[in-house]
Write a structure and sequence with these properties.
Length: 387
């Protein structure tokens, strides 16, 4: 019995220590798993874990953003620091404020607007406005359709994604005018995806998906005819022909992607949308980024910079988190079993001792009774003995 009780006590001690060690990990795992469908909450948890490992993380990234001449990102990081009650040096915050003011000057905005209008490339809000102005007047999309369509007709290398996005842009532009800007987020999203593709800032997985979707939305023979018959000098004729080559019924996925990208751009800025497209591996990532941007607004770029794709989904596999929870539950089960076994052994030991004491009392009482009987017999024998 002593050996069994000792084993039970050792099991209790071992399981208790293991539970103390695994429980914090299990709690963290359960919290992360519960937040995996909420990008904003998940990003907060991921950032909290990162700041525990490196308290100066936000300050370091802010200085790097300033060194890279990206005041918008630096400002996003300052906003994030304020929301997390992370103290930044006053001189650093002053530098950020000055660079942001300089970037938002009238001259800088006008220059970037003109650059976007002429080149069709957007990397911030001003240049995107210029790019969108060109696309809303369709010459930007016509330029891309004519260029890629000509490559298609001559057998040269064709960027199917840019071609499909430009065709979709031409088709959606009419809707933008009809709804008085109601389709503008989709229009902006198409422009951003197209620009990200041109400058190589589209995630590999997302690029593959978008290219496949773009192939489906364009009627290639009809587009060849549109390019052959159309001209940039007669945009109305080209627009009509390209719209006829655009398969609206096949464009649902591409339009949802564009809408989500437009939401990110609206809440987090053009560069926030471009950062999202760079790290995304599929439309689901972009949809999660749109939810994050709706919740975090201007802080979104800071989350994306610090956490990368981890701002959108669990970077550690759910299976690993599940194993921590499973391990903690098994340890808890082992502790309960060990406690049960220990209680049973202690109870049995107590019962055995009680039985032993009772047996000893009964034996003692029997001995006393026998002794008294013997004395009584001896006394009676003395009385009747012959004189």
């Amino acid at each position: 019995m002593g050996l069994k009780l000792g084993v039970a006590k050792a099991g209790i001690a071992l399981c208790a220590v293991a539970l103390v060690l695994t429980w914090p990990h299990a709690q963290r795992a359960a919290t992360f798993l519960a937040a995996q469908d909420d990008p904003a909450q998940l990003a907060d948890l991921q950032l909290g874990a990162a700041l525990q490992q490196e308290p100066g993380l936000i300050e370091r990234h802010t200085r790097e953003a300033l060194d890279a001449h990206d005041p918008e990102l630096a400002d996003s990081l300052v906003q994030l620091a304020a929301s997390r009650n992370v103290a930044l040096p006053d001189d650093l915050k002053q530098r950020v404020a000055e660079t942001v003011t300089a970037e938002r000057s009238a001259t800088g905005v006008a220059t970037r607007f003109a650059t976007g209008l002429i080149t069709g490339k957007a990397d911030d809000g001003a240049s995107l406005s210029g790019t969108m102005a060109g696309d809303l007047f369709v010459f930007g999309d016509i330029r891309d359709v004519v260029r890629e369509g000509s490559n298609l007709a001559t057998g040269a290398e064709v960027d199917r994604l840019v071609l499909g996005l430009a065709a979709a842009g031409i088709a959606i532009t009419a809707a933008t005018y009809v709804t008085v800007g109601g389709a503008t987020p989709v229009r902006a999203g198409l422009t951003l995806v197209k620009d990200a593709r041109k400058v190589g800032r589209l995630g590999e997985g997302l690029a593959i998906w978008a290219s496949r979707s773009a192939r489906e939305v364009v009627d290639t023979p009809a587009l060849r005819r549109a390019v052959a018959d159309g001209t940039s000098v007669r945009p109305d004729k080209t627009v009509t022909a390209v719209k006829a080559a655009f398969r609206t019924d096949k464009a649902g996925g591409l339009m949802r992607l564009a809408k989500d990208v437009g939401k990110v751009g609206e809440k987090a800025g053009t560069r926030g949308a471009l950062d999202t497209l760079k790290i995304s591996q599929g439309p689901k990532d972009v949809a999660r980024a749109a939810k994050l941007a709706e919740s975090k607004g201007g802080q979104t770029r800071a989350f994306l910079k610090i956490l990368g794709r981890g701002a959108l989904l669990l970077t550690t596999g759910a299976w690993n988190f599940a194993w921590w929870i499973f391990g903690a539950l098994m340890t808890l089960f082992g502790l309960v079993v060990s406690l049960k076994s220990g209680v049973e052994r202690i109870t049995q030991s107590w019962i055995d001792r009680r039985k032993a004491r009772r047996a000893r009392r009964l034996i003692a009482a029997a001995k006393r009774a026998e002794s008294e009987r013997l004395r009584a017999d001896a006394a009676v024998g003395g009385l009747v003995a012959p004189s």
